[in-house]
């Protein structure tokens, strides 16, 4: 399959490598010139579960991609949500009438932007529990296992998503169809809404945070706000499942020593975060439904304060 990975950061690099190794025709599109230059010069490098690998995968700056002769059958979105509209505008010439667009961004409400560029029948909304990190321009660190839940937002449903699921699974990405993707997205958002902001503010990996005596109380306070907002929208969540997913992040033998993507963006790379589309989204929806969200509001404010102190851009 001809695939565009729109956003060649840590997760985009993982998916590009795995799909490329499964013999798909993959190109990367990104806006970080140093990263683009490194991949062009040395290939996309990765520490892949302890093995050092390098693969030559074409990569383009989003400002030049409109000149590329490539008719995508599938686009996988991995941009930062603040960059989503600009990325879709850039790759619009490569999106055909039958191109499927799979959105795997963190956060809530991205389909409202995507439908301005792609018919709803071609939009797949999903979330992924894979993890990844960047050690520097052109070098990813990939470890652990993961999965993808996705749903076709159009009327065709599962049958229209099956070809994409098969391609992902041949690459070992463990995709499965969900009849209620919003529940999966909110479940993932609960993980991001705790691990990302907390580890960023506390300068901690997930395992160390989980071993503090106050971690459970903080996590439950934040998650309860996500549940209240989800319940107002008739989105079903189960507290034991969500807490189990969060607790699994503390395991030092799997992903516990990992610093979440928000930490990598802000603390390491001094880049603005997606906090407004995770905890901040719960604050906005809380106001809409008249639901108090003091913990999400405070964490959002703390992350924004940290952005300003660091001078994130």
List keywords for this structure.
single chain, alpha/beta, N-(1-d-carboxylethyl)-l-norvaline Dehydrogenase, domain 2, 12 helices, NADP binding, oxidoreductase, 2-dehydropantoate 2-reductase activity, NADP, pantothenate biosynthesis
Category from helices, strands and their pairing? alpha/beta
CATH architecture of the largest domain: 3-Layer(aba) Sandwich
Query: CATH superfamily of the largest domain, please?
Result: NAD(P)-binding Rossmann-like Domain
Enumerate how many helices there are, as a single number.
Answer: 12
Termini separation (Å)?
35 Å
Per DSSP E runs of 2 or more residues, the count of β-strands stands at: 12
In total, the number of domains comes to 2
Strand content: 15-25%
CATH topology of the largest domain: Rossmann fold
User: Can you write the helix and strand succession as a string?
Assistant: EHEHEEEEHEHEEEEHEHHHHHHH
Characterize the biggest β-sheet: 8 strands, mixed
Estimate percent helicity.
40-55%
Enumerate the strands of the largest sheet in spatial order, edge to edge or round the barrel.
5-2-1-6-7-8-11-12
What's the CATH first level of the largest domain?
A: Alpha Beta
Shape: globular
How would you sum up this structure, described in words?
GO terms for molecular function: 2-dehydropantoate 2-reductase activity; NADP binding. The protein is α/β, with parallel strands linked by helices and 313 residues long. The protein folds into two domains: 2-179, Rossmann fold; 182-310, N-(1-d-carboxylethyl)-l-norvaline Dehydrogenase, domain 2 (Orthogonal Bundle), CATH 1.10.1040. The chain contains twelve helices and twelve strands. It has an eight-stranded mixed beta sheet with strand order 5-2-1-6-7-8-11-12, sandwiched between helices. Helix 6 (181-202) packs across helix 12, helix 8 (215-232) packs across helix 11 and helix 11 (279-288) packs across helix 12 (294-310). The chain is globular. It starts with a strand and ends with a helix.
């Amino acid at each position: 399959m001809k695939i565009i990975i729109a956003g060649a950061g840590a997760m985009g690099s993982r998916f590009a490598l795995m799909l490329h190794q499964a013999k798909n025709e993959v190109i990367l599109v990104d806006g970080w010139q140093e990263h683009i230059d490194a991949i062009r010069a040395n290939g996309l490098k990765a520490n892949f579960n302890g093995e050092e690998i390098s693969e030559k995968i074409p990569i383009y700056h989003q400002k030049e991609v409109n000149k590329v002769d490539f008719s995508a059958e599938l686009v996988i979105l991995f941009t930062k949500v603040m960059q989503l509209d600009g990325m879709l505008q850039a790759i619009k010439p490569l999106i055909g009438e039958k191109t499927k667009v799979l959105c795997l961004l963190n956060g809530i409400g991205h389909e409202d932007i995507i439908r301005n560029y792609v018919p709803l029948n071609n939009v797949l909304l999903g979330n992924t529990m894979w993890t990844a990190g960047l050690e520097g321009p052109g070098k990813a660190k990939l470890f652990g296992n993961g999965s993808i839940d996705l749903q076709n937002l159009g009327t065709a449903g599962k049958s229209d998503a099956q070809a994409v699921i098969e391609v992902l699974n041949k690459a070992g990405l463990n995709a499965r169809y969900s009849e209620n993707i919003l529940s999966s997205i909110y479940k993932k958002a609960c993980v991001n809404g705790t691990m990302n902001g907390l580890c960023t503010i506390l300068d901690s990996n997930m395992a160390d945070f989980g071993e503090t005596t106050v971690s459970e109380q903080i996590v439950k306070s934040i998650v309860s706000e996500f549940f209240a907002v989800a319940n107002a929208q008739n989105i079903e969540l189960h507290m034991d499942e969500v807490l189990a997913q969060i607790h699994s992040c503390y395991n030092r033998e799997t992903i516990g020593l990992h610093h979440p993507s928000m930490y990598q963006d802000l603390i390491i790379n001094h880049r603005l975060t997606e906090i407004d589309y995770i905890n901040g989204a719960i604050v906005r929806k809380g106001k809409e439904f008249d639901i108090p969200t003091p913990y999400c509001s405070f964490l959002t404010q703390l992350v924004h304060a940290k952005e300003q102190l660091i001078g994130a851009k």
